[in-house]
Write a structure and sequence with these properties.
Radius of gyration: 19 Å
Number of strands: 30
Distance between the termini: 42 Å
Strand content: 35-45%
Order of helices and strands: EEEEEEEEEEEEEEEEEEEEEEEEEEEEEE
Largest sheet: 5 strands, antiparallel
């Protein structure tokens, strides 16, 4: 079911501010995740981003831990500032500055009471306290749901923040590449934008090749509390801890044997109740009620020939997991960061430097980050960011477009972003 896209223009966008691993598969019938006592937690469920304030122990499946306040796009970064809205920096039409800028820049037209935000390739979205989904930036594949172009029915650029009124009041939004999804207060999932791999989950279109889609309901997903959009696929988590995925599956991203795209959601088999999920480039990771990390698909750092089916990341207990480009990172209960997969001195995927390209198959403790409350990465970005318990935002990785918030360099180690209020 596809909803019509009724768009309300809010304002123009911006101006200069004044100031693994080895995968272990359980034996058939083994029920190590069956528990008799569950502690109630809050678990971050944004597209690879979240905030934590947690205790060690078992958790209630499908609980909600707080929402993302950092977002990483292709060449830009955004952060929520309490009672001040969103600030962005780097190079993107989503920033709306006509060129790279290191200085965090406020996005005009946004209310101050934003609850969460997300970044796609060149577009961004946020949810305010009323549940309105607000988007701005590129719209060449309807990722901001704005209709109207002489070429392909999509306005190529949305220079204003728009409220997507065809999406019911939402609790969370996730974007990546040219697609966007949101979870409504009623537990439904709506997706829109690029659909060339079925990543909107709306089923087969009426024409070929697959055109971009306006906001529409994802069938076979109900009682959802979170959605995470990867490069060409997306996954949702319901209140009982069940994961459902749709979109590209050429590398087992959906948790089943590699196949053609799936434009309808299907439940991921072989998993315990989950509390958090993150869709990456060609893989997906999740955290279960016992704090174990599961990954499937073309998993970062997996041994050659390993099955793409869900498997446990050995030796890791985590509160959140973040699936990125060619790597993944996890945040443990001591606010420490562990990463695995591809580490490369030319790209800086890991916070810690390496001398040469290396594939780490087991999680490695990052010594350059401490007391981390939130991480942010993306299935298509070569930089990442973290927010510390003190509120400082640190970024690292590629900085060719000033996306780290500092003077241009090819690569930068973790440093605080200056200029944020």
């Amino acid at each position: 079911m596809q909803a019509s896209a009724r768009i309300t223009t809010v304002a123009t966008t911006t101006e200069r501010p004044t100031r693994i691993p080895h995968l272990r598969h359980p034996a058939p019938g083994k029920s190590r995740w069956q528990r008799t006592t569950l502690l109630v937690w809050f678990v971050a469920l944004a597209a690879g981003c979240g905030r934590t304030d947690l205790r060690v122990g078992e958790r209630e499946p499908g609980s909600d831990r707080g929402l993302a306040t950092l977002a990483v796009g292709f060449h830009h970064t955004c952060a929520l500032v309490e009672d001040m809205g969103a600030f962005c920096w780097g190079d993107s039409v989503a920033v709306g500055l006509g060129g790279p800028r290191a200085e965090p820049t406020p996005v005009l037209g946004l209310p101050a009471d934003l609850r969460t935000l997300t970044a796609g390739g060149n577009h961004d979205c946020a949810v305010d306290s009323t549940g309105a989904v607000l988007c701005w930036g590129a719209n060449d594949s309807l990722q901001c749901a704005v209709e109207g172009s002489a070429l392909d029915g999509a306005a190529p650029l949305s220079t204003a923040v728009v409220a997507i009124e065809s999406v019911p009041p939402a609790t969370q939004v996730s974007a990546n590449g040219q697609s966007t999804c949101a979870v409504t207060r009623d537990g439904e999932v709506f997706c829109w934008g690029a659909d060339d791999f079925g990543q909107t989950g709306q089923g087969p279109p009426d024409e070929s090749p697959r055109p971009p889609r306006l906001p529409g309901w994802v069938a076979d997903v109900s009682d959802a509390i979170a959605v995470s959009v990867g490069l060409e696929h997306a996954c949702a988590l319901d209140r009982s801890g069940v994961a459902s995925c749709w979109g590209a599956n050429s590398r087992g991203e959906l948790g089943v044997a590699p196949s053609e795209l799936r434009d309808r959601a299907l439940q991921v088999p072989g998993l315990p109740p989950l509390v958090q999920i993150s869709a990456g480039q060609h893989f997906t990771c999740a955290v279960d009620v016992a704090s174990s990390v599961w990954c499937w698909g073309d998993v970062a750092g997996r041994p050659p020939g390993a099955t793409p089916a869900p498997g446990v990341v050995d030796g890791l207990s985590a509160e959140q997991v973040y699936a990125g480009f060619l790597f993944a990172c996890a945040l443990d209960s001591s606010r420490r960061v562990w990463c695995w997969g591809r580490a490369d001195p030319d790209y800086g995927f890991f916070p810690d430097p390496v001398d040469e390209p290396t594939d780490f198959r087991t999680p490695r403790l990052m010594t350059t980050l401490h007391d981390v409350a939130e991480l942010a990465t993306s299935a298509l970005s070569w930089h990442s960011c973290a927010r510390s318990d003190s509120g400082a935002v640190l970024c690292w990785g590629r900085n060719t477009e000033l996306q780290l918030g500092r003077p241009r360099t090819r690569y930068g180690a973790p440093e605080a972003v200056p200029g944020l209020p």
